[in-house]
């Protein structure tokens, strides 16, 4: 069994490297027990020597190690839902397929195979796109952390056919509300839908309604808490004000404003 290779020598269990660039000699242990990994470490050391970065520790980071570091760093800044969603996608799809790869070997070919596997297993194109958006964020984190000099892969997003939003024709509004009243188990839903139709409120704005924002004298409603943080004064249509399901009266209106 060979115990040497150009620039490498086996000492005990580990391969040690020795190289010289521009008169500067560097040697040490690669901490690798297999020759392919030792060769990769040797090339990293050679690059560091050429770039004058020998004082900075260099190591080969796997995709799994990088993902774990990224999740740890961002756990405190991401919302719980965002973090759980990202962790689940990475654990379920990315790590089993490419987790053992050195991050520099996560090539476009490897990424293409990973995405094809996800689609074959039933993932939607949208879910695959979201997973790779997360993976791209991790690659950018690796670049900022000096694990990579550039992204090792580029993969265009899958084209997703957008579904048109369902629209209720104006002439069918009464039928729609009547059907809603029959099927909605929660009386608050009947109120919120009417307010969203009558005032054009966003869902979050309807859920955040307040009694004091109604003006009975002028029959207006002020959106005091909106997505864009702007206060909007909206006229309340007569049909909405007088509707028994959504009249702006705490004793009649079903929403606990």
TrEMBL record:
According to its UniProt entry, one GO biological process term is: DNA recombination
Molecular functions per Gene Ontology: DNA binding
Q: What residue stretches are annotated with the Core-binding (CB) domain? A: 61-143
Q: Which UniProt keywords apply?
A: DNA integration, DNA recombination, DNA-binding
**Which SUPFAM superfamilies does the entry link to?**
DNA breaking-rejoining enzymes
- All copies of the Tyr recombinase domain together span 162-257
Q: Which InterPro entries match?
A: CB, DNA_brk_join_enz, Integrase-like_cat_sf, Integrase_catalytic, Integrase_recombinase_N, Phage_Integrase
In terms of domain of life, where is this protein from?
A: Bacteria
Tell me the PROSITE patterns matching this sequence. CB, TYR_RECOMBINASE
Q: Its family?
A: Belongs to the 'phage' integrase family.
Q: What is this protein called?
A: Integrase
Taxonomic source organism: Mesoterricola sediminis
